[in-house]
């Protein structure tokens, strides 16, 4: 029983950590190019809402394609506001979060949801239109590896998005630190003027990384719904996009370190729920609800102190608009 309990906790840690990992990977690329994306929470909740509506109408595959497209559009919107119009990145990020909450609420209203689903698929059953649930992604067991004690159920008996997140972390680390593309991204985030003088298109790099952040954030929200909790609840992301911002700092803007950071945050959340079953913190759930916002405040405070920024290795141009001379 003890071994099965440990396996269950570790498997849930990987599953829940994937939410943070997907979001933080996109945020790392955005911040490495100099864009502070405080709109990650909004991108996540819109991704979750699209997954909710589209999964019941079209199935998982087309739903995820739609999530990617919507995430890319939100990334383009972010880039247009902070790169082209050079608006304050903190204000834009918070505005995108509020926009995401409003849009998700609109899309998931019963009447609006029914119209969208019937437009997408006229033959969709009525039960799928009125339900608040959706079919969760099925676990895909890796042959042989899934039979290894403890490790098999934890790492090799997960759904496709978990595998995608882990593979994406390795690929994105390699691109960021071992390729000329990654060097260009890091150069833009450190010294955009010098990068521009060397022929690197600063605006294009920041547009691309903003789109990556939007796509990964939307996928994080979609995974939260169809991969971990296939039951729609208003504002179900519950501040996890802001926790992803803190995770980026903890990971020192490295995709590989983000894997371990996401497991840490995921494990804390899983253990917290398990402890409530034994009576711990069951009477003070409001304390847990306020933590993401405390983390966001602390994160912004840390990033505002110049000496701390240098010690953490914060990209020099983070949060600063670029003006070509």
Describe the structure.
- It is a single chain.
- With 325 residues, the chain is mainly alpha-helical.
- The protein has one domain (2-125, 184-312): ABC transporter involved in vitamin B12 uptake, BtuC (Orthogonal Bundle), CATH 1.10.3470.
- It is built from 15 helices and 2 strands.
- The chain has helices spanning 2-32, 40-58, 60-84, 89-107, 110-120, 126-130, 151-155, 160-178, 180-190, 192-197, 202-228, 240-250, 255-277, 285-304, 306-312, and strands at 140-141, 157-158.
- The chain has a two-stranded antiparallel sheet.
- Helix 1 (2-32) packs across helix 8 (160-178), helix 2 runs parallel beside helix 4 and helix 12 (240-250) crosses helix 14.
- The chain starts with a helix and ends in a 13-residue tail after the last helix.
- The model has no long low-confidence stretch (mean pLDDT 88).
Features:
single chain, ABC transporter involved in vitamin B12 uptake, BtuC, globular, mainly alpha, 15 helices, two-stranded antiparallel ribbon
Provide the structure class.
mainly alpha
Overall, the morphology is globular
How far apart lie the N and C ends? 66 Å
Approximately what portion of the residues adopt beta-strand conformation? under 5%
Strand line-up across the major sheet:
1-2
Give the fraction of residues assigned to helices. over 70%
CATH architecture, please? Orthogonal Bundle
Q: How many beta-strand elements?
A: 2
Oligomer: single chain
Number of H- or I-type helical stretches: 15
Mean pLDDT across residues: 88
CATH class category name:
Mainly Alpha
């Amino acid at each position: 029983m003890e071994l099965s309990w440990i396996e269950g906790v570790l498997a849930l840690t990987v599953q829940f950590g994937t939410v943070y990992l997907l979001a933080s990977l996109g945020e790392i690329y955005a911040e490495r190019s100099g864009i502070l994306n405080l709109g990650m929470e909004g991108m996540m909740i819109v991704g979750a809402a699209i997954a909710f509506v589209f999964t019941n109408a079209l199935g998982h595959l087309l739903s995820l394609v739609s999530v990617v497209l919507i995430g890319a559009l939100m990334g383009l919107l972010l880039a247009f506001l902070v790169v082209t119009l050079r608006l304050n990145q903190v204000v834009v990020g918070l505005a995108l979060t509020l926009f995401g909450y409003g849009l998700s609420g609109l899309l998931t209203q019963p009447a609006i949801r029914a119209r969208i689903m019937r437009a997408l698929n006229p033959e969709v059953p009525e039960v799928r239109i009125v339900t608040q649930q959706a079919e969760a992604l099925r676990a895909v067991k890796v042959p042989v590896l899934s039979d290894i004690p403890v490790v098999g159920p934890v790492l090799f008996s997960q759904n496709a998005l978990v595998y995608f997140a882990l593979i994406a972390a390795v690929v994105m680390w390699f691109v960021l630190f071992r390729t000329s593309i990654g060097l260009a991204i890091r150069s833009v985030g450190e010294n955009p003027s010098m990068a521009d003088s060397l022929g690197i298109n600063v605006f294009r790099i920041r547009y691309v990384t903003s789109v990556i952040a939007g796509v990964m954030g939307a996928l994080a929200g979609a995974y939260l719904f169809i991969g971990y909790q296939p039951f729609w609840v208003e504002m179900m992301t519950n501040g996890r996009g802001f926790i992803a911002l803190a995770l980026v700092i903890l990971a020192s803007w490295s995709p590989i370190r983000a894997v371990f950071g996401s497991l840490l945050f995921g494990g804390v959340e899983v253990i917290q729920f398990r402890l409530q079953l034994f009576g711990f913190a069951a009477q003070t759930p409001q304390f847990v609800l306020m933590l993401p916002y405390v983390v966001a405040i602390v994160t912004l405070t840390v990033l505002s102190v110049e000496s701390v920024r240098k010690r953490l290795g914060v990209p020099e141009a983070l949060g600063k608009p670029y003006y070509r001379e």
